[in-house]
Amino acid sequence: MFEDFWAKKGEEATVVIPGWQTLSYFSDVTNVCWFLERDFGQEVRRLHKLVGNAVTEDRYIVIGTGSTQLYQAAVFALSPPDASEPMSVVSAVPYYSGYPMKTDYLRSGLFRWAGDARAFKGESYIEVVCSPNNPDGSMNKAVLNSETGKTIHDLAYYWPQYTAITEPADHDIMLFTVSKSTGHAGTRLGWAIVKDPNIAKKMTKFIAMNTIGVSKDSQLRAAKILKVISDGYEHPNTKSSMRLFDFGRDRLAKRWERLREVVKATKLFSLPEYPLETCKFTREKFAAYPAFAWLKCEKEEIEDCESFLKKLKIQTRGGMHFGVDMKYVRVSMLDREETFKLFIERLASLA
Ligand code: PMP
Question: Does the C-beta of 138 come closer than 6 Å to ligand 1?
Answer without folding.
Answer: no
